[in-house]
């Protein structure tokens, strides 16, 4: 049976790496089916990293305020 679409060999190799034990078609289908989930997880991770950055900045501000308060106490 001739291939349904002409997929470059390097893409087939990559698909086989991500989906070992499958034939070429099965590997490509697996990668395509999993793509949406991976993109969703990546977006979630980016959101979480942004949230961690914000939390880190807030913590830095609190630490700075606490250090200022400690210095003021030591100056009494």
What would your notes on this structure say?
The chain is an all-alpha fold. The protein has one domain. 80% of the residues lie in helices and 0% in strands. Helix 1 crosses helix 2. The termini are far apart. The mean pLDDT is 93.
Characteristic terms for this protein:
single chain, 76 residues, mainly alpha, 2 helices
N-to-C span: 88 Å
| Largest beta-sheet details | none
Summarize the helix and strand pattern as letters: HH
Q: What is the beta-strand fraction? A: under 5%
Count of DSSP-assigned helices: 2
Topology, number of strands: 0
Low-pLDDT parts are none
Sum up the overall morphology in one term: rod-shaped
* Cα Rg: 26 Å
Number of domains: 1
Compute the average pLDDT. Answer: 93
**Class from secondary-structure proportions:** mainly alpha
Helix content: over 70%
Write the layout of secondary structure elements.
Layout: H1 9-18, H2 24-74
Helix pairs in contact: 1-2
Tell me briefly what this model is.
With 76 residues, the protein is mostly helical.
């Amino acid at each position: 049976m001739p291939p349904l679409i002409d997929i470059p060999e390097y893409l087939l190799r990559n698909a086989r790496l991500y989906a070992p034990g499958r034939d070429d078609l099965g590997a490509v289908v697996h990668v395509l089916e999993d793509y949406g989930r991976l993109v969703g997880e990546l977006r979630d991770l980016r959101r979480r990293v942004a949230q961690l950055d914000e939390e880190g900045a807030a913590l830095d501000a609190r630490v700075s305020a606490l250090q200022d308060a400690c210095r003021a106490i030591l100056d009494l």
